[in-house]
Amino acid sequence: MLEKELNLIDGFQEEISPGGNKADSFDSKEAWYPVHYLEDLDKSKPTPFTLLGRDIVIWWDRLAESWRSFEDQCPHRLAPLSEGRLTNDGLLECPYHGWTFSGDGDCQRIPQQQKGGTAEISKRACVVSLPTIEKQGLLFVYAGMSENAAKTKVPVIQPLEESPEGWVLINTFRDVPYDALTLLENILDPSHVSFTHHQTVGNRANAAPLELEVTESGKHGFKGIWKQGLQPGQSGELSTTFVAPSLMWHDINSQRGRILTVVYATPIRKGECRLFARFPFKFPSVLPSLFIKLRPRWYYHIGQNGVLEDDQIFLHYQERYLEAKGGSPNFTKAFYLPTKADSFVFELRQWVNQYNAEPFPKETFSPPLPKDKLLERYHSHTEKCASCSSALAKIEQLKFWSGVAAVLALASVPMLTLFNTTSVLAVVIETVAPLIFGVVWIGLNKLQKQFYDGRAVPPRNLPEKN
Residue 188, exposed/middle/buried by CB under 10 A (0-12, 13-18, 19+)? Predict the structure, then answer.
């Protein structure tokens, strides 16, 4: 019911900023974090997630018509509730002994107790519940003290709130093998695009001096402006906003249109976070918006996964090298930042140090993963994405039947020869049909692989065409 309560009090209760009430520190737990796009959540089963090192389970409470989030442990014997099921009467059932729980976390049934027993009313039989709220197509979970949730600001994309009409959004997400702070640092550095993402969304030929300036800064984030664009002749208002602890966006506003690059970095555990990337577009003409809407969501995800993999490997190693040199407290010695292009990177690291905002202060990184693990897509995205998992199932089915058709077409050749058939139709079946079905199978096989693994060689390192 908390979602409903939050909606009812919205605008009536004074909001507070995240991070706790201490002026000199930022408590990462006292904040709302996005955990899933609503369109990717399955109302028929529980969904596991890990937030700030804490395993949680997300499930649809059809009695209250709202999403719930519990600590992923049954109070009985600590079995993960995410391995359970939703019962016909709308409760969450533990897979181990069948204890069931309502949306507020109260235990409703203990099958093992004698008739007339009341063990389920004990507080020890309750599951720890975390507050949830829906905003801008995302489900947010509050990681801190539940009594602070209703009055703490939810980190939304402010330009979309101020002017909600006319936007076209492209959304993606992925569980990436590096820290939330590493992700934010990377996205706050626009000058890397020309080199890291050469041949995907960047071009080395556009590399030029970039002067960034921080205009506001404090415990709850900072804002900055760009003195130049990433491309020659790029004009308009260019700015960057960081909303602590997990949200940032670049805002490019010109006569040709307005484009935002928005990233949420939700910390899963040390060295892993869930990236939510959102690309709102607003154009004076309707044509660009129509073209964007023509392509399916899964098609965009394949391309965006490739862009993420452009820097996924070296970011995974970079943060370990920084840790070996003293970590964020020693970043000014570990990094050499001589240009204004690194202004936002400097400001982020300075914010972490000034407000003790490291979400895992006493933990260290695990040993680095091999390259094939860093580039896998299926478990980090596909199986969790409603669009991609559905598309993959259809592609695999089409691939199977195209293979069957190719084999049948080839098998029919001896039969046609046996009957001495020389008609045009027979010739087509003998030659063209197996070829067509074979080409279709090869194309679908290539497409299928893109849902499982990324490219071993990034496009920037491929030989250049003269």
Answer: buried
